[in-house]
Amino acid sequence: MSRDESFYDKVGKVNGWDFSDLKVLSEGVEWDFYEEVKSRCNNTGVLLDIGTGGGENLLQLSTSLLFTIGIDLSNEMIKKAEMNLKNSTVSNVRFFQMRADELRFPDGFFDIVTSRHAPFSSKEVFRILKTSGRFMTQQVGESDKLNIKKAFGRGQSINEEDGALKERYIRELDEAGFSHVQAFEYDATEYYQRSEDLLFLLKHTPIVPDFGRDQNDNKILNDFIEANRTDKGIRTNSKRFLIIGEK
């Protein structure tokens, strides 16, 4: 099991990928990913969600589609998704543990493929999409939560050039054969309302790798909170990019 897989298994046991209880004020967010997906769905469509986590978003999206499938590399995430499905009234969703670069689906099977904050294979996505099918992905930019990563001196993509991942994905989608690729991005300001909201974020995401491993991490976090506390909350940023490709 890889380090990342182990991390997401741990998160899956706790809460899937549900951050709905966090109290965060955002300014400058230009889209909601699943609303963008929903606007392009119809009731005859079949959708695959790569990196579905606990499946919370897919279950909400399923009413706009004929059938949906969610996959995740983490077995614990899939267990959480299955539990969420069982506790819902949804009947047109299935979940499977599966690698994104080895999709066990026939060619041209899906109308839409989505991937939110999860890796994917452009070639595999292209293969399983129908002609005129659409791929939509939202990813985290390298400069996301930049002031947090600077405070800790370590963090996800901290030494990588901002925009490099977006350009790489665009290039890979072009090479895979997508005929029309569009990209959008925003850098929003986030205000976490409570210290425990920020603590939850760091414990359940890989923003600061192995948060808590160092005995100074809690002190660094407390100092960060005091230095970035405003009337609106504890300030940081959310860097996101959206790519839409058509086959």
Topology (elements, then pairings):
Layout: H1 3-15, E1 24-27, H2 33-38, E2 46-50, H3 56-61, E3 67-72, H4 75-86, E4 93-97, E5 110-116, H5 122-128, E6 129-140, H6 146-152, H7 164-176, E7 180-192, H8 195-204, H9 217-228, E8 234-246
Parallel strand pairs: 2-3, 2-5, 3-4, 5-6
Antiparallel strand pairs: 1-7, 6-8, 7-8
Helix pairs in contact: 1-4
Protein model, in words:
By secondary structure, this protein is of the alpha/beta class. It is globular, with a radius of gyration of 18 Å. Helix 1 packs parallel to helix 4. The chain is 35% helix and 26% strand. The chain has one domain: Vaccinia Virus protein VP39 (Rossmann fold, 3-Layer(aba) Sandwich), CATH 3.40.50.150. Strand 3, helix 4 and strand 4 form a beta-alpha-beta unit. The N terminus is likely disordered. It has an 8-stranded mixed beta sheet with strand order 1-7-8-6-5-2-3-4, with helices on both faces.
Instruction: Please state the structural category.
Output: alpha/beta
As for the number of domains, it is 1
CATH evolutionary superfamily:
Vaccinia Virus protein VP39
General shape? globular
In short:
It comes from Bhargavaea cecembensis. It is built from nine helices and eight strands. It is α/β, with parallel strands linked by helices.
Features:
9 helices; 8-stranded mixed β-sheet; alpha/beta; about 25% strand; Rossmann fold; about 250 residues
